[in-house]
């Protein structure tokens, strides 16, 4: 079975066999890894495409450089990304660089995590969250 994944670097839609998820698949257009072990910094345009079509859960950390709790949570988010490589993809969106995200996603506070899959939001949570709790929450959201 093929699954759809948006390249988090260039926004290109890719189709890859599900059993190749762990074989380090690369984007057919720009060559960036499609399934990495670390969160990828993304633009709002790329997020709009990925949230619409990705078959793998996409977990987005909405953050800003001025936000102390966001900086505290960054290493926890990275740990969760590594633990769930191939299960979910992790991205970060800088809410200062992309202020339009605030209205689009109804952001009232950061850090905010939103999980997307198959064109819909499958979960969200705010506040500093330890890696294990992020992983548990992603597992519970992905089961919905
Ligand atoms: Zn690409």
Structure at a glance:
The chain is an alpha/beta fold and 144 residues long.
Query: Superfamily at the CATH H level?
Result: Glutaredoxin
List the bound ligands: zinc ion
Strands of the largest sheet, in order across it? 3-5-4-6-7
Number of strands: 7
- Helix-strand sequence: EEEHEHEHEEH
Based on secondary structure, the structural category is: alpha/beta
End-to-end C-alpha gap: 21 Å
For the CA atoms, what is the radius of gyration?
14 Å
Give the class-level CATH name. Alpha Beta
- Overall morphology: globular
Biggest sheet character: 5 strands, mixed
- In CATH, the topology is named Glutaredoxin
| CATH architectural name | 3-Layer(aba) Sandwich
Can you tell me the number of structural domains?
A: 1
Low-pLDDT segments? none
Q: Roughly what fraction of the amino acids lie in strands?
A: 25-35%
Our count of helices gives: 4
Helix content: 25-40%
Mean pLDDT: 95
């Amino acid at each position: 079975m093929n699954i759809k994944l948006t390249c988090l670097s260039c926004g290109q839609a890719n189709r890859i066999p599900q059993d190749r998820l762990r074989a380090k698949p690369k984007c057919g257009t720009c060559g960036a890894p499609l399934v990495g072990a670390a969160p990828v910094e993304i633009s709002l345009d790329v997020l709009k495409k990925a949230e619409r079509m990705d078959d793998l859960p996409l977990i987005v950390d909405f953050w800003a450089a001025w936000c102390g709790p966001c900086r505290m949570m960054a290493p926890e988010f990275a740990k969760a990304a590594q633990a769930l490589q191939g299960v979910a993809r992790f991205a970060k969106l800088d809410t200062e660089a992309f202020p339009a995200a605030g209205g689009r996603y109804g952001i009232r506070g950061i850090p905010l995590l939103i999980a997307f899959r198959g064109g819909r939001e499958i979960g969200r949570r705010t506040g500093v969250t330890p890696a294990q709790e992020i992983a548990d929450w992603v597992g519970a959201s992905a089961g919905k």
